[in-house]
């Protein structure tokens, strides 16, 4: 079953006219025969629409900073925000020193009404002192919540004074929830802070080993990053820093020496990727370690970049061995999944990445979209010059970097880079739409009403999204797969992850539970035939 | 000892959430209702996420999606537009509008904005209940009561006397609400229970799916609460200014029975005694049987329960009732903690501690670091799932109860009220103590009697497997 523009139009009639006009620009039927299709994204959420989007604080502390394990992340504000970002994203981490892993902790200044009236700077400063005395972290971050900016607490000044007192870095992030239009603003704020204050501050001036890389935009949810690192290390790569899943402040400081930056989640980390290129001359490669083919393509592209015969050979050997190992298993699952359809609506990259893995299982993605992406995540980076900055995006400070006098080193010649760009996504991202089939629906900032309407219209067999949709979807009789936290499962990345994902999705299709939703008395009489009456 | 302000300025691993989070819940228990949070959209998104994980149900909460512009020019336009959109798509009968840190800090007057909105659109006052819930104003428990109180004060209108009973409940599980209703029916009482999220947040899987679920307290019933014959409120720890029962008593003269949550034999007795007094109907034999069974279970389990030393934490009202259950079964508390700043827990419970042979620590504004510091001698914890910190750090097993429960399914189905519910909770406590005992029993016996008592391991070591074993071989 497919939808056309007319059906979409009819669906949107449930809205007030103004809302309909707005939402129409965020939904389209993919049609590759058109030279290009424009989708509106990263604009203000319509009030009263039940959106899945979060806030700048969620993007900054919750997504980018939170997984850095050897830093204490203090949330400056009333208690709620700290609580709500406590352990919810399932970022896994193992610390070399077990005392230097603070991921299970939630730190808050727990501002009270008096702090709102008289300011919370003193409380924050005192808290930093306590945290240093008790935990001795490598560094500290402070994330601001809504009231902090409004009452004018200067967290930068508090951070600076604390640095002088304690001799460790204390970074302030003004990621008040009202900034920007979604968590995307927070990613940008976090990127700027880490780039400005941490990356490049390490002692290394060159990579300690060959094939040194950073892995950006990988948050190690359910252990994804570990599976990716397993493969990379076996091939012979040396991972310097992961941003930020299982990442550390200590490693991040030396991220500038890598020969190549891999970008998994484009949306949340592309700012750092770009700045690393400008400041240190390191290009980035868009990778996708979700799905077998995605993983293979990413590995081969990396080998092309490094252009080393032994590395290429090892890459192919690992690919061949892994594929031979998992393909028979995948084949079993494929039989259970073949011919099904999926909705794939996640944050800023998974809405794209999981389509390949679904396809490998014979599941067609009929609708995909992002919660908080920008147009380039849909249409590709070529569109960036056309995106006009608006009042909201202008509110997020832009960090401008210049080539570092000491550490800038072109990792490959401009000529070779230009040539490579013809074949591999070097410092480029084509976006989600490039890989979607014609007739499928692309939707930005899908909301509660549209979720229900589109499920009714397209009747997908599985809905891959997050916990806020999960129970709506399941109440409608359709299995849901959480692609934010993986329903306590994972990893789903790499080769082993593909098998885990196949098993979980197959389970959703084959669980006998769905067979019992209609009670037998609604279907047929218990006794066939008629009972003779005397 | 009553610890209110612990020595640290840091809050690590909190034992509370913020006001608007608590205020969503009562609105989910009104018929055909929606909630809109006036603030950054992150607030509603985070709260939906946490409630969905506890209830395993859709939690649809709208936001006015305020942004930087709104912080300068005010959020009135966003709020009104949000209400328009909510009305158009969901056609609710009542909308709870809750404030946030952001709205309160910039001084949004939601009473004015919402009443103006209703006037402009020609709508009834009952359509919107505005509740002031700044995130810094208290914990989620205060948010819950602030919302219930405001729902009552906003909607209740002078009504001729009628035969219904008002029943006002704190944050208990949907299963608990169903049990309260079953008991009320057995006592042949007609009632208005507020808020009733027994169906809305524990929905049967039936097709077709409805965006706004069936069930919930009817608005006209809330309006008629002032005419009720009496109010039974489980709000013993409530400050009067947050108490809807006191409001109805003061404004409309509705007699108030302010009782503890009926957990444990004494608290359930109080509830049934009140119902008997109000209805004139004797407690039926079936309920007397249930009481008898609970007592039978208490007698059967007392030798195990007396080895229990409990840490009880969470929302004050629930903590009070669970303490009572623990006290009457010998699972004597070591630490009693709540995230609320002010609660009369210590005053209420202190007189009942005469039989307890160890000091009991009361902690307000608690976080789990403070709780743990005072719980080294405990062998069972009872409260929401964040208490797993106590298990991880100190090996104290946790009986999950209250809100939120994030790491197990079925938070919405935990039954702990009435004689039957109390028995289920008690069995779980007893069995947790037994499981803990059995986990290390053979080792303890071996160490003590075979290797000699000097080899007795230190039971305060984490994961020694011996939390239940030190005094009671």
Write the CATH homologous superfamily of the largest domain in chain B: Nitrogenase molybdenum iron protein domain
Tell me the radius of gyration of chain A: 24 Å
State the end-to-end distance of chain A. Answer: 53 Å
**Uncertain runs of chain A with pLDDT below 50, 5 residues or more?**
none
User: CATH topology of the largest domain in chain B, anyone?
Assistant: Rossmann fold
What portion of the residues of chain B fall into strands of 2 or more residues? Answer: 5-15%
Distance between the termini of chain B: 30 Å
The CATH architecture name of the largest domain in chain B reads 3-Layer(aba) Sandwich
- What is the residue-mean pLDDT of chain A, rounded to a whole number? 95
Overall outline of chain B = globular
CATH architecture of the domain at 56-178 in chain A: 3-Layer(aba) Sandwich
The chain pair forming the largest interface, with residue counts per chain, is: A-B, 78 and 74 residues
For the report, how would you describe the main beta sheet of chain B? 6 strands, parallel
- What is the fold-level CATH name, i.e. the topology of the domain at 56-178 in chain A? Rossmann fold
CATH superfamily of the domain at 56-178 in chain A: Nitrogenase molybdenum iron protein domain
Number of distinct helices of chain A: 22
Give the strand order, joined by hyphens, for the main sheet of chain A: 1-12-11-10-13-14
> How many β strands of chain A by DSSP?
14
């Amino acid at each position: 079953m497919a939808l056309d523009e007319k059906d979409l139009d009819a669906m949107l009639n449930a809205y007030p006219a103004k809302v309909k006009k707005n939402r129409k620009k965020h939904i389209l039927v993919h049609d590759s025969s058109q030279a290009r299709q424009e989708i509106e994204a990263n604009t203000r959420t319509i009030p009263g629409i039940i959106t899945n989007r979060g806030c700048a604080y969620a993007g900054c502390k919750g997504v980018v900073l939170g997984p850095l394990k050897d830093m204490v992340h203090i949330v400056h504000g009333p208690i709620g925000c700290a609580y709500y970002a406590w352990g919810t994203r399932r970022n896994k981490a193992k610390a070399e020193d077990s005392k230097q892993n603070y991921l299970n902790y939630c730190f808050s200044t727990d501002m009270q009404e008096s702090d709102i009236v008289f300011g919370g700077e003193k409380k924050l400063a005192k808290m930093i002192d306590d945290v240093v005395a008790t935990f001795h972290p490598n560094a500290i971050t402070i994330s601001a919540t809504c009231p902090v900016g409004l009452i004018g607490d200067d967290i930068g000044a508090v951070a600076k004074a604390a640095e002088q007192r304690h001799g460790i870095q204390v970074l302030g992030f003004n990621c008040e929830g009202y900034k920007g239009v979604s968590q995307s603003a927070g990613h940008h704020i976090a990127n700027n802070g880490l780039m400005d204050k941490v990356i490049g501050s390490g002692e290394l001036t060159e990579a300690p080993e060959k094939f040194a890389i950073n892995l950006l935009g990988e948050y190690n949810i359910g252990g994804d990053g570990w599976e990716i690192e397993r493969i990379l290390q076996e091939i012979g790569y040396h991972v310097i820093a992961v941003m930020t899943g299982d990442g550390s402040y200590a490693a991040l400081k030396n991220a500038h020496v890598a020969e190549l930056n891999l970008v998994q989640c484009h949306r949340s980390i592309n700012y750092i990727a770009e700045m690393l290129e400008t400041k240190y001359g390191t290009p980035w490669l868009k990778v996708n370690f979700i799905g077998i083919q995605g993983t293979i393509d990413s590995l081969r592209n990396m080998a092309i970049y490094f252009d080393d015969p032994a590395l290429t050979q090892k890459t192919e050997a690992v690919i061949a061995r892994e594929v031979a190992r998992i393909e028979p298993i995948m084949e079993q699952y494929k039989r259970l999944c073949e011919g099904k359809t999926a909705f794939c609506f996640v944050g800023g990259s998974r809405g794209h990445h999981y389509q390949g893995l679904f396809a490998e299982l014979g599941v067609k993605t009929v609708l995909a979209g992002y919660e908080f992406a920008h147009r380039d995540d849909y249409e590709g980076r070529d569109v960036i010059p056309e995106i006009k900055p608006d009042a909201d995006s202008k509110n997020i400070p832009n960090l401008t970097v210049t080539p570092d006098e000491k550490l800038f080193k072109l990792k490959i010649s401009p000529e070779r880079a230009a040539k490579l760009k013809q074949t591999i996504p070097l410092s480029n991202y084509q976006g989600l739409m490039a890989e979607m089939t014609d007739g499928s629906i692309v939707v930005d900032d899908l909301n509660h009403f549209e979720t229900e309407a589109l499920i009714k219209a397209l009747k997908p067999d599985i809905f891959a999204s997050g916990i806020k949709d999960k129970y709506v979807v399941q109440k409608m009789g359709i299995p849901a797969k959480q692609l934010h936290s993986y329903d306590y499962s994972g990893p789903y990345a790499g080769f082993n992850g593909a098998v885990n994902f196949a098993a979980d999705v197959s389970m959703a299709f084959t669980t006998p539970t769905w067979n019992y939703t209609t009670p037998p008395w609604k279907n047929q009489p218990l006794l066939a035939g008629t009972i003779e009456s005397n | 000892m009553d610890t209110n302000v612990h020595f640290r300025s840091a809050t690590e691993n909190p034992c509370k959430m913020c006001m608007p989070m608590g205020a969503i819940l009562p609105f989910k228990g009104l018929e055909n209702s929606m909630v809109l949070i006036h603030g950054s959209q992150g607030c509603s998104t985070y709260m939906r996420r946490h409630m969905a994980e506890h209830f395993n149900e859709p939690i649809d909460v709208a936001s006015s999606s305020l942004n930087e512009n709104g912080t300068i020019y005010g959020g009135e336009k966003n709020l009104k537009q949000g209400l328009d959109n909510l009305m158009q798509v969901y056609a609710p009968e009542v909308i709870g509008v809750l404030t946030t840190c952001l709205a309160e800090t910039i001084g949004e007057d939601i009473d004015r904005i919402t009443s103006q909105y209703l006037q402009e659109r020609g709508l009834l006052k009952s359509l919107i209940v505005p509740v002031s819930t700044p995130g810094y104003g208290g914990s989620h428990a205060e948010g819950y009561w602030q919302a219930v109180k405001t729902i009552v004060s906003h909607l209740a209108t002078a009504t001729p006397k009628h035969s219904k009973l008002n029943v006002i409940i704190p944050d208990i599980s949907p299963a608990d609400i169903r049990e309260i209703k079953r008991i009320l029916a057995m006592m042949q009482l007609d009632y208005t229970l507020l808020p009733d999220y027994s169906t809305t947040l524990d929905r049967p899987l039936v097709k077709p799916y409805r965006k706004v679920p069936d069930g919930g307290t009817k608005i006209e019933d809330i309006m008629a609460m002032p005419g009720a014959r009496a109010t039974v409120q489980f709000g013993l720890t409530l400050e009067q200014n947050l108490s809807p029962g006191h409001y109805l008593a003061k404004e409309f003269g509705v007699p108030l029975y302010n009782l503890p949550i009926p957990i444990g034999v004494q608290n359930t007795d109080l509830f049934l005694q009140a119902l008997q007094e109000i209805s004139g109907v004797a407690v039926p034999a079936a309920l007397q049987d249930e009481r008898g069974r609970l007592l039978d279970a208490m007698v059967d389990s007392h030798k195990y329960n007396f080895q229990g030393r409990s840490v009880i934490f969470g929302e004050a009202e629930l903590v009070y009732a669970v303490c009572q259950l623990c006290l009457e079964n010998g699972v004597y508390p070591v630490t009693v903690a709540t995230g609320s700043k002010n609660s009369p827990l210590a005053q209420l419970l202190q007189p009942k501690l005469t039989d307890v042979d160890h000091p009991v620590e009361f902690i307000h504004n608690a976080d789990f670091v403070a709780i743990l510091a005072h719980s080294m001698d405990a062998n069972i914890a009872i409260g929401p799932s964040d208490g797993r910190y106590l298990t991880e750090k100190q090996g104290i097993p946790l009986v999950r109860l209250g809100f939120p429960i994030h790491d197990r399914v079925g938070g919405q189905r935990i039954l702990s009220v009435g004689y039957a519910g109390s028995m289920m909770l008690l069995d779980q406590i007893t069995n947790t103590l037994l499981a803990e005992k059995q986990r290390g029993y053979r080792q303890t016996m071996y160490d003590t009697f075979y290797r000699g008592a000097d080899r007795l391991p230190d039971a305060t070591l984490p994961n020694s497997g011996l939390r239940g074993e030190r005094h009671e071989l």
